[in-house]
Amino acid sequence: MNNYSEWKNIIECLLLVSDNPLTEKKIKELTGLEKKIINFLIKKLISDYENSSRPFKIYEIAGGYKLGTKPRYSLWVKKILENRKKYQISKAALETLAIIAYNQPITRLEIEKIRGVNCSGVLFNLLKHKFIKISGRKKVPGNPLIYKVTDTFLIHFGLKKLSELPKLTEIGIS
Amino acid sequence: MSNIDINFIIKFDNFEGPVNKLIKSIRENIIDIDQVPIVDILNQYLEYLLENKNIIDLDIASKIITDAALILKIKSEHLLPNMGIENIEQEDEEDNNFIFIEDKDAYLQEYNKYQKVVEHLKEREDNQSKIYFPMIERKLKENNVEIQKVDLADLLTALEKVLQNKKEEDFLPVKKRSFTVATKMKEIIDLLKNNKGGISFNYFMEMTQGKLEIIVTFLALLELIYLKKINCYQNKNFGKIIFYMKGDALNLKKN
């Protein structure tokens, strides 16, 4: 058991320093532990943080895990990170992202059909900030590019996976 | 809405009333569409807009345009020669209108759904923006400004420079063209394999003769980048752009 608490600490370190959310697969690669054990240790870590008054929390995000600060302290954290402001997405960009997220892979024309306005500028910016990526070309006349959302998108909106978004049909009813 | 809506009154020979009433009258054959002066309606509408431009509600203003367009559609259809498909046409008139409205509603419904998603995302974004993740690694990368990724714009400016310098093309005796994008790509790869340190963009350009070869070489470079066979870096802004084989990235950084 003592051994496990050491492994738990190791995973905690990994979750702290990793740039991107760590997947269980990646942790397995790094530690050689079994997935079941990794899952157990992470669950333990999550509850450890939850039950303590530490200002951190382990977030399940973009298919992986990452240690981050609790929202309560954002006011203070913001002060020191003034020069590293989080990128705020415009309304048009949000709309485009929403359409891509629900219909991906999707071509520009299909997006524009729903939005009713030209989207090339918005798409360019989203690509630049890596919220979306080009995932190939559609096999129709003209071979238009098709777009998909990225992990950056999931991280920005705190989503575990795309399916966590509310279903379109459910939205229609409400 | 209805308050201002009624404000806009169309007046001509034997009719006076809002647009909806006009459409209704046309539908019910009370007014002959031939007798409806579209130009007058438009002029009255423009006048009305100018008078009320400070207080007008855009929703209403555009609604009137939709209605006016409908009148225009009815009239233009009426003016077109009848090709002997009256029955269908008459049904179509109703159908078209129906589909149009249904389409629009479906479209708006669809669009509204996304608006709700947008609200949802916005909320998530707000929540998420309060959470910070330590990013030591990324910070290191940011500090290390020595090496910068090149984007297409950098490459294009470099190409432009070369093309400008090469303006006076040397007129050589006509020679059979001995290169294609494919052969150039092979050439570039061979060169890069022998030069682990990377080769600058200018070097490639100096190898060329004539605009065509410059462009073919440029296309070959782009294609190789696209295929992820090679990478390119710029030491500083406006500096030399260096190309190297993808696998050699580590060597380069060590150097």
CATH level-four homologous superfamily name of the largest domain in chain B: Structural maintenance of chromosome 1. Chain E
- Record the strand order, biggest sheet of chain A: 3-5-4
CATH architecture of the largest domain in chain B: Orthogonal Bundle
Known CATH architecture of the largest domain in chain A: Orthogonal Bundle
Q: Would you count the extended β strands of chain A for me?
A: 5
Structural class per helix/strand content of chain A?
alpha+beta
Total strands of chain B: the figure is: 6
Average pLDDT level of chain A: 82
Strand content of chain B: 5-15%
Oligomeric state of this protein: heterodimer
Report what the structure shows.
The complex is a heterodimer of chains A (174) and B (255). Chain A is α+β, with helices and mostly antiparallel strands. Chain A folds into 2 domains: 2-80, Winged helix-like DNA-binding domain superfamily/Winged helix DNA-binding domain (Arc Repressor Mutant, subunit A, Orthogonal Bundle); 91-173, Arc Repressor Mutant, subunit A (Orthogonal Bundle). Chain A is built from 9 helices and 5 strands, in the order αααββααβααββαα. In chain A, the strands form 2 sheets. A 3-stranded antiparallel sheet of chain A has the order 3-5-4. Chain A has a two-stranded antiparallel sheet with strand order 1-2. The longest helix of chain A has 17 residues, at 35-51. Chain A is elongated, with a radius of gyration of 20 Å. The mean pLDDT of chain A is 82. Chain B has 255 residues and is an alpha+beta fold. Chain B has 3 domains: 1-79, no CATH class; 101-130; 146-170 and 177-254, Arc Repressor Mutant, subunit A (Orthogonal Bundle). In chain B, the strands form 2 sheets. Chain B has a 4-stranded antiparallel sheet. Chain B has a two-stranded antiparallel ribbon with strand order 1-2. In chain B, 14% of the residues are buried. Residues 1-5, 86-100, 136-148 and 249-255 of chain B have low confidence and may be disordered. The chains are: A alpha+beta (174), B alpha+beta (255). The interface between A and B is medium-sized, with 41 and 26 residues.
